[in-house]
Amino acid sequence: MKPTLLFVLFVSLKWREGIGALVGFFVGFLGAALYGEPPGLSAFAFTLVGYCAGIVSPFLKDTPRPVVFVFVWLMLLGTDLVMSGCFSILYRPGLALRPGCALSGALVLALVYPWLDRTFQKRRR
To answer: Is the pTM of the predicted complex or chain greater than 0.85?
Structure first.
């Protein structure tokens, strides 16, 4: 689910909170249906991430890559926390934080985000 979450983060950083929340909801709902998870929890977590990332996006526009890296890493860890918290409340107790997976996802998006941002700027003109 991390590549889809990276997609939601990119869309949120690029097109703000409304589009980010909408894409997060549909990606979370579709991903839950494909992976056999309860659809409401994934849709809720992805919508929350899309909305929060969209709110912060104006402040990250011209920041250096390490700031984007730390932000994305915290968002990925926050998603793990929300998902595992909801699962532990509703189904089975236990938190499942994956800092290594969040670290690699944050590294990928921090390195690729400026290039993707420039690419979408050129195509839109």
So the answer is: no
